[in-house]
Design goal:
This protein is mainly α and 107 residues long. The protein has helices spanning 2-24, 27-37, 39-64, 69-89. It is 76% helix and 0% strand. Helix 3 (39-64) packs across helix 4. The relative contact order is 0.08.
């Protein structure tokens, strides 16, 4: 019985300490500020991953077929799904220059 009371007291104290530490940190504000500062770079990287990530998966599938057939097949199916998603969901840009337009890119 005494152990249960002691455990509850320790848990309660631990929760208070964790809450106090989390309330005193400003890591969230720092992350948001860093993202807003580098927003164009981050958006460009995400755009290229979205547009060309399927190619990387397809190359990985081709390379891994010789080593492990199941892994190669899984990567191939993911790459096929990625390609289907890109064709069905993405619209080409009006000027035709860039595959990643902000107003026409996949949602």
């Amino acid at each position: 019985m005494a152990k249960k009371v002691a455990k509850k007291a320790v848990k309660k104290t631990a929760k208070k300490v964790v809450k106090k530490v989390l309330d005193s940190t400003t890591i969230d504000e720092k992350l948001v500020a860093e993202y807003k500062e580098n927003k164009t770079l981050i958006d460009t990287i995400l755009c290229y991953v979205k547009c060309y990530g399927g190619y990387v998966l397809a190359v990985g599938a081709g390379c891994s077929f010789g080593v492990n057939f199941k892994l190669g097949l899984a990567l191939f199916l993911v790459a096929a799904g990625w390609a289907y998603w890109q064709v069905c969901c993405c619209k080409p840009c009006k000027d035709g220059k860039d595959a990643c337009c902000s107003e026409n890119s996949c949602k």
